[in-house]
Design goal:
By secondary structure, this protein is an alpha+beta fold. It contains two helices and 13 strands. It folds into two domains: about 10-80, Outer Surface Protein A, domain 3 (Alpha-Beta Complex), CATH 3.90.930.12; about 85-165, Ribosomal protein L6 (Outer Surface Protein A, domain 3, Alpha-Beta Complex), CATH 3.90.930.12. β8 and β9 form a beta hairpin.
């Protein structure tokens, strides 16, 4: 039995859950999210929890058991608490600012980079070098952070670029001088 899949998913108060035609819809204080689920999976939905059941021990059903439970759990967490990613800019003159729903980045190029934030994703900038990306959909928040990081990935010699706050950059030694 899947260790993750067999755990019940608690439903907080103020959250509505419904399953129609293979689409799980969760409505909460931060918005609503929907996720298509594998039709073979069974669900026991009560007032306080959801339990995901698999029909048999086939390899495919074992694989989808824990995944389905994690996806539904992320929906519930997203509409109640939300998700966030923190990016840090390091480099001389590297700055970020938010204008309406756009993020303007100065990353040492000859021009500023303007990135339009996806719907239901917000960004805030602390001290011009720390970007906090927040939203209710875990996948969209992660993709947004990855896209922004790709504008100037951190380089291994001086560590300049955009990195995730929890990311650790492996540093390389520069070339040695002539003897």
């Amino acid at each position: 039995m899947s260790r993750v899949g067999k755990l019940p998913i608690p439903i907080p108060s103020g959250v509505k859950v419904k399953l129609e035609n293979g689409v799980f819809t969760v409505i909460g204080p931060k918005g609503s999210l929907a996720q298509t689920v594998v039709p073979e999976m069974g669900f026991e939905i009560t007032q306080e929890s959801i339990v995901v059941k698999r029909p048999d021990d086939q390899r495919r059903n074992r694989a989808y058991h824990g995944l389905t439970r994690s996806l539904i759990s992320n929906l519930i967490t997203g509409v109640t608490v939300g998700f966030q990613k923190v990016l840090e800019l390091s480099g001389v003159g590297y700055r970020a600012e938010v204008k309406e729903n756009m993020l303007v980045l100065n990353l040492g190029y000859s021009h500023p980079i303007t990135y339009v934030l996806p719907q239901n994703v917000t960004a805030t900038v602390d001290k011009q070098n720390r970007i906090v990306i927040e939203g209710c959909d875990k996948q969209v928040v992660g993709e947004t952070a990855a896209t922004i990081r790709a504008f100037r990935p951190p380089e291994p010699y001086k560590g300049k670029g955009i990195k995730l706050a929890e990311e650790r950059i492996l540093r390389k030694v520069g070339k040695s001088g002539a003897r």
